[in-house]
Amino acid sequence: MSYTFLRVCMARLTYNIILILSLFLTGCATSTDMEQLRGELRSINKAINGTKAIQADQDAEIASLKQNMSKMEEISKETQAQMLTQDQKQTQALKSLKPRLNSIEKEILRVDDRLRTAEARLKIPSPPPLALSIPSLESPALMDSLTSTMATNAKAKPKAFDGEEKSLYEEAFNILSRGEQDKARKIFERLIHRYPNSILVVKARYWVAECYFQKRDYEHAIVEFDRYIKDFPSSELIPSAYFRQGEAFEALGDFYDANIVYKKILRDYPTSQSSKNARKKIKDLEKRIKY
What we know:
Helix content: over 70%
CATH topology of the largest domain: Serine Threonine Protein Phosphatase 5, Tetratricopeptide repeat
Number of helices: 11
Distance between the termini: 86 Å
């Protein structure tokens, strides 16, 4: 029942009471009139009780809504607090990461400056441009033997090719196996300049750098291996080139840069044989590096 209905009933009851009282005072009220008045009083009492029940239900719903709103406010505050905490953690993590990123960037720049300084001092001419960039055809056995002696390297025979470039390559490789680095390097360079589109250029460029390394001309070796890495990024010999570069830095007493190169091998070429060798090198170097 609505409050409007209750007000109508009350007005009707008031009117009837006044009417019956008037009749009673004038002596005209009957028992039927009184009974009718009692019936209306009962109806109004029933309506009032129903209205009270509705009011109680509404009060209960309002209390429940207030309680839910309070819980939602608490959850919202808790969520905001969690988000604020998470944001603070992320901000702190970024702050702690920034010095590390700066340190890595400085390490990379240091190695790059080292290479550029060596290149400028040595005044090494740029290699001839290549029309093709073909991955190396070195066998895994030959790759794994690059870090051992040339006696072991000599056992790995290059694949046969037709033409003069094949003869030049085999001649240079055999001469290098006998320890005549300068002579072998010149023949490799002759092959590179004479046949710039040959597939053997990819391997010959590696062995030019290797000739410098075996002659202990480590600065030339570092620069040549760096150029090889940039010119042939998909070559299977890249891990070996990095490892030789690290050994060259180490031979020059630059243990810090050598360590950086070895760690790059672990990060970028973790399944290579050079990675296994680099891990051993890092253990030895970290004992000697003074941070």
